C-alpha cells in the first residue's frame, strides 16, 4: 500500500519546517550541500514514565522517502516566497537544484515493533547534507507520534492482561491524520480492533463497534431499541445498557437475548460506558450468569487507560473487553515523545568520518557522536543490555564494559561468549533504493509480542519500572568525553 498516494495523492516533501529550507539554501550557497553527513534520530526519555518504548511508523517513513521529490507546484510556491525587501527568498539556481534533486540517502532503522531505549538511534540517515536536513522534520513528525501511541497501546494491553482492547478514539483524535496514524499505531501496540473504518480500509485493521446512546433514545423505549438492533444484527448483538438505568438495561438485554435464543442466535454481551464500572460489571455478571448467559461478554469504556484498567483489575471487576479511546489516541498524559534528530558525523575529504558533538548545560542533551550502531545482548531469550558502538570499531570478544551515556558511574560488564547478539539497525535504503521488504501489520504485531516477551517483567512495570541497561562501548565513551572537553576548551570565549 502506498500511504502517500492513498491518503494525500501527492508528494509530502514540503512537510518540513521553514528553517530546513533556509539551511538547505545556505548549504547550497556555501558549497557544503553535497558533503556526506550522518544524522541520528533518537529520544532521551521514555514516555509515560515507563521502562520501554516501541518503535513505530517506519512504513510511513519509507513511503515518504520513496516519494521525496519537489513537484512543479512545490517549486512554484517556493519561487513566490519573498524576503523583507520584497526580493525572492531563494535564487533560481537553488530552485533548479531542488527541481533536479533525487533521494540518494542510505537509511538504516530499527524495525517497527522493536523495543527501544533512550539515546539509541531509531533511524540513522547518511547522505548529502541537504537531503539529510530536509528529511528531519517529516521523520520526527512520523516516528514521534506513532512510537508514542504504539507504546501507550502496549501499556494498556499489558494492563488488560491478555483481554481484548478495542481502540475507538477517532472522534477525539488530533485531526484526520492523527486519527489514522493512531489507529495504525494502536493496532501495532496490541489493540484487537479499531472503530475507524477508514483505518480498516487503508491498513487492514479489524473494525468493530455496536451502537450509541442515540440509538436507544431514538425509540419509545430501551427494550424496543434493543429488539430493533437485534433484528438488524442477530449475529452481532452487543447492547449499550447505561442510557437510562444500567441494571434495568441489563435486564432488557437479557430479555432480548432470550428472544434471540429462541431464534437460534446468541447475544454477544453488553457494554458499560458510565458509572462505577467495578460495581456494575459485577452486578451485571451475576444477572447474566443467573439468566444462563455465562458466555456473554462485558465490555467497558469511559475514559479508560492503563492505570484505571489496573485499578479495575485490582477490584476484581467482571470485565472481559476494554474499549479505550481518548486517552489512547491522544496519549492523554504525555502528548509528545520528544525524539530529536542530530548531526553526529561529517565525512572528510579523505573519506573518514569526523565525529560531531553538541554540548549543553544539561548532560541529557549532549549527543552521542560518530557513525555508530547498537546491538542487543540476550541470555536464554531475555534481553539483558544494549551497547552503542562505533561502526568498524574493534572491541574485545572476551569482556566488554558499557557505560551509561548520562551517568558514567553506571557501568555493566558483558561477557559476549555467554550471550546471543542482535544488531538492531537494518538496511532500509542504499543510495536511495529500497533494500527492505515492508512487513505486514500482523508481522509487526508478532514482533511486538516477541519483543515484550524478551523483556523482564520489571522493565514492563507501569509504575517505577526497573532501568534497562543501555551503554556506550568504552572506546565510544572515551571519544565522546574527549570531544566534550575539546569543545568546551575551544568555545570558552577566549
Automatic annotation (TrEMBL):
Pfam families: NAPRTase, NAPRTase_C, NAPRTase_N
Gene3D superfamilies: Aldolase class I, nicotinate phosphoribosyltransferase
Processing after translation: Transiently phosphorylated on a His residue during the reaction cycle. Phosphorylation strongly increases the affinity for substrates and increases the rate of nicotinate D-ribonucleotide production. Dephosphorylation regenerates the low-affinity form of the enzyme, leading to product release.
Pathway: Cofactor biosynthesis; NAD(+) biosynthesis; nicotinate D-ribonucleotide from nicotinate: step 1/1
CDD domains: NAPRTase_A
Molecular function in Gene Ontology: glycosyltransferase activity; nicotinate phosphoribosyltransferase activity
Keywords: Glycosyltransferase, Ligase, Phosphoprotein, Pyridine nucleotide biosynthesis, Transferase
SUPFAM superfamilies (UniProt xref): Nicotinate/Quinolinate PRTase C-terminal domain-like (SSF51690), Nicotinate/Quinolinate PRTase N-terminal domain-like (SSF54675)
All residue ranges annotated as the Nicotinate phosphoribosyltransferase C-terminal domain in the record: 376-479
Family, as annotated: Belongs to the NAPRTase family.
Its job: Catalyzes the first step in the biosynthesis of NAD from nicotinic acid, the ATP-dependent synthesis of beta-nicotinate D-ribonucleotide from nicotinate and 5-phospho-D-ribose 1-phosphate.
Protein's name according to its UniProt entry: Nicotinate phosphoribosyltransferase
Species assigned in the record: Algoriphagus namhaensis
Classification of source organism: Bacteria, Pseudomonadati, Bacteroidota, Cytophagia, Cytophagales
